[in-house]
């Protein structure tokens, strides 16, 4: 009579490929979350039909909220100290300036910011808008 041995070995499940995929997904989500960063200052941009997406790297970003408060690189600043700060930054680098003003922000404040930037030697000034639906 033929006798068969029962194998007592358990099936071996290799988890290495699954762990690799989990790490790749984790890296993907961490990198994309880094690119979707919000500046932290709530601004409702005005809408325009001709609005385009700017892929340029803007060295300076000035925010103006609905109350007319000015923020330079996420730090609140007033109009008096904005000009010397822009002069200091323009002397070190050749910056481009993006003005992100709330649609309810006073227009006079936005005009004064753009004027002070031109006086400081900044030639590339962009007024941010969002695409109109």
The CATH class assignment of the domain at 47-131 is Alpha Beta
- Integer-rounded radius of gyration: 27 Å
**Helix count from the secondary structure assignment:** 3
Class by helix and strand content?
Answer: alpha/beta
CATH structural architecture of the domain at 47-131: 2-Layer Sandwich
Give the topology string: H per helix, E per strand: HEEEEHEHEE
Spatial arrangement of strands, main beta sheet: 4-3-2-5-6
CATH fold descriptor of the domain at 47-131: Nucleotidyltransferase, domain 5
Overall average residue pLDDT: 83
Number of strands: 7
The main pleated sheet reads as: 5 strands, mixed
Unreliable spans are none
Strand content: 15-25%
Terminal Cα separation, in Å? 83 Å
Net shape: elongated
- Give the proportion of residues in helices: 25-40%
How does the SSE layout of this entry go?
Blueprint lengths: L15 H20 L11 E2 L11 E5 L5 E3 L2 E3 L1 H14 L3 E6 L5 H13 L4 E4 L2 E2 L2
Parallel strand pairs: 1-7, 2-5, 5-6
Antiparallel strand pairs: 2-3, 3-4
Helix pairs in contact: 2-3
Task: Describe, in plain words, how this protein is organized in 3D.
With 133 residues, this protein is an alpha/beta fold. The longest helix has 20 residues, at 16-35. 35% of the residues lie in helices and 19% in strands. The termini are far apart. A five-stranded mixed β-sheet has the order 4-3-2-5-6. It has a two-stranded parallel ribbon with strand order 1-7. The protein has a domain at 47-131: 2-Layer Sandwich (Nucleotidyltransferase, domain 5), CATH 3.30.420.270.
């Amino acid at each position: 009579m033929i006798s068969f041995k029962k194998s007592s070995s358990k099936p071996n499940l290799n988890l290495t490929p699954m762990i690799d995929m989990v790490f790749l997904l984790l890296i993907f989500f961490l990198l994309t979350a880094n690119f979707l960063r919000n500046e932290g200052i709530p601004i409702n941009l005005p809408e325009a039909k001709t609005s385009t997406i700017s892929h340029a790297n803007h060295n300076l970003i000035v925010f103006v909220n609905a109350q007319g408060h000015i923020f330079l690189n996420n730090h609140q600043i007033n109009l008096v100290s904005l000009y010397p700060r822009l002069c200091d930054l323009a002397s070190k680098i050749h910056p481009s300036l993006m003005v992100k003003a709330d649609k309810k922000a006073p227009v006079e404040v936005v005009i004064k910011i753009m004027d002070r930037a031109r006086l400081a030697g900044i030639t590339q000034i962009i007024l941010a808008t969002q695409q109109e639906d």
